[in-house]
Amino acid sequence: MPIEPIPFRRSPAPTLGVEWEIGLIDPETRDLAPKAVDVIDHVAAHHPEVHLEKEFLQNTVELVTGVHDTVPEAIDELAHDLACVKEAADSLGLRLWASGSHPFSDFRKNPVSAKMTYAEIIERTRYWGQQMLIWGVHVHVGISHEDRVWPIINALMTKYPHMLALTASSPGWDGIDTGYASNRTMLYQQLPTAGLPYQFTTWAEWESYMHDQGISGVINHTGSMHFDIRPAAKWGTIEVRVADATSNLRELSAVVALTHCLVVHYDRMIDRGEKLPILQPWHVAENKWRAARYGLESLVITSRETDERWVTEELTDLVDELSPLAAELGCLDELRLIEEILERGAGYQRQRRGYLVHRDWKPVIDATCDEMEELKPRGH
Predict the structure, then answer these.
(1) Residues in the chain, pLDDT under 50
(2) Number of domains in the chain
(3) C-alpha pair distances (Å), 211 with each of 97, 235, 286, 326
């Protein structure tokens, strides 16, 4: 059987799109509320310009931006959309909340959205698929040619722990503190189409791989692979899906800026004829685990020679290194918010501190909902 080509819709500029998954909370029980359809219908009726998507679970609304040239433009759209969603949630007596996972909600009691592919995924993946009470951030960056896609993805994987540690916000699960900064990361990789991408070197290798997945039936239930970083050929982008959902738009803007800068940085290295970084697959896998386990307290592997550094030092240096490019791309203020996150602590650290004080996750849910309302992006 001949291999079907996968056309890549080339982007002439490094444009940007963001997807942010947000949960709906019952303010009395602090549990998740399966009211996404009601919220989406309210927003559609009152603010038809807002693009929302129904997600895997009926307790989740996904905010989806259009195509933007700069991070501030994308964040402005998200801020508008978030205000519209909050208006709808307020009218239904709900609160908005976002994190990598909910610390005590029972997956058995959270209905899946009425979409046939979701029901098929649950039927196939059973116990692990049923547990997907998890939320993330997806950042798309436009790429000019498919030949650049996999070298850039492989380079981005060297910064996987940086992006995850910054956003890790899922320490709680089933009522306990798991000891992980991002339990979401560990859960999601259990699905057969999820996890670390393979280190393809050419677009033809990717086409051959996807051809095999189609023949073997791996992607029959999903239509695609859900790698942590993957090509989105239909949009002409690389889609970075590493981050836990941030509790607020201020911190979201920081990780979007970091992602945008990294992709453009590696793209320009190709322009200059420079060799892009790549780590051995075992180092990439180890870094992913360390970031999921330890978050901002991770010691990460930084070279093929197995050199190591604290991820906080790495992030501080990255901000300095990428600042000139960020200024050019119009997202220097947002990139600099990384320093603020390092000072305040990542989401998992804030949640864990609250749980240690109260020995109860409900006040932690309240505080996380408060962050959605209080930690606003710059200029808002």
Answers:
(1) 116
(2) 1
(3) 39, 20, 29, 38
